[in-house]
Design a protein that fits this description.
- By secondary structure, the chain is α/β, with parallel strands linked by helices.
- The chain has two domains: 200 residues, Spore Coat Polysaccharide Biosynthesis Protein SpsA, Chain A (Alpha-Beta Complex); 73 residues, no CATH class.
- Helix content is 42%, strand content 17%.
- 42% of the residues are buried.
Length: 296
């Protein structure tokens, strides 16, 4: 059995997914499977992927489903992974030529009880590391610690044990096509540690349009999911600074979803009462602003 599954969820990206495929063909190790979940594409994605399969250069598993949004597609992917570890590579990104070799070698040398995976670097088209570097000398850690304590910024590549990442599937709300991926990572952080591998494994085109380019539109169209996510983060957060931030957004997104009883449904009702004077105006701002982004 192969060690790594490279997961790609895709929707109408036939025009660019070939760059990722080419990078997988160039890998210095074949110890991987490429799992493509086609989230109901209406272009020629199916034809393109089946053409790749016919070439027989790498092992590909292709699944096409009714459109369910990125989180629904990832649920499908995690349910169908059979390898020990996996990572997600977006359809408009691609892997460095030795990425699979670096990932599998690092895991085989460093895996141990209590460690769920590791995190590596993404780079831009010029080879520059995106965001901040990992703290020097850090050992076992969590994504929460890296972000909240060390101030880590920028896209990174997460590699997880498949048996753990499929736990706690993303909640699916009817009509909503997005749910924050960090939901899984934060829950995993409560039980497990990750390691850091200061190596680049993925190349990202930062100029490409992405699902996160219009966060305000996401808040409006996926309000139930965001409100649920914020409430769960409130429940597991310990620092008042983060509880307050999440509560303010929870209130705004609850109102956007039509939930006027946000205090009653809040996991920490005292904070909901305290933050209402800020959360309610944020609701009105998100509802009517013409800006595409606000501070998360």
């Amino acid at each position: 059995m192969k060690t790594l599954t490279v997961i790609t969820t895709t929707y109408n990206r036939a025009y660019c997914i070939g760059n990722l495929y080419d990078s997988l063909v160039r890998q210095t190790s074949d110890d991987f499977v490429w799992l493509v979940v086609d989230d109901g594409s209406s272009d020629n994605t199916e034809e393109v992927i089946k053409g790749f399969i016919d070439e027989g250069k790498i092992e590909i598993v292709y699944i096409k489903q009714k459109n369910a949004g990125m989180h629904g597609a990832r649920n499908t992917a995690y349910d169908n992974v059979t390898t020990e570890i996996n990572t997600i590579i977006d359809d408009d990104d691609y892997m460095t030529d030795d990425a699979v070799e670096k990932i599998t070698d690092f895991w085989k040398k460093n895996k141990k009880d209590g460690v769920v995976g590791f995190i590596a670097y993404d780079v831009d088209l010029d080879g520059k590391i995106i965001g901040t570097l990992f703290p020097e000398g850090i050992g076992e850690t969590t994504t929460t610690e890296l972000v909240d304590v060390y101030g880590m910024k920028g896209d990174k590549k997460l590699i997880y044990r498949s048996d753990i990442i499929r736990e706690n599937p993303f909640p699916v709300f009817e009509g909503e096509k997005f749910f924050p991926a960090s939901y899984k990572y934060r829950l995993i952080d409560l039980k497990y540690k990750i390691l850091t591998m200061p190596e680049a494994v993925c190349v990202v085109d930062c100029n490409q349009n992405s699902m996160t380019n219009n966060k305000v539109a996401q808040y409006r169209s996926c309000a139930k999911g965001f409100a649920f996510y914020r409430n769960e983060m409130i429940k597991i957060s310990e620092k008042p600074k983060y509880i307050i931030r999440e509560t303010i957004h929870y209130i705004a997104e609850s109102l956007l979803s039509g939930n006027k009883h946000f205090i009653k449904t809040a996991h920490k009702k005292g904070y909901a009462i305290l933050c209402a004077p800020v959360g309610v105006p944020l609701y009105w701002y998100i509802k009517y602003t013409k800006k595409k982004a606000i501070k998360p």
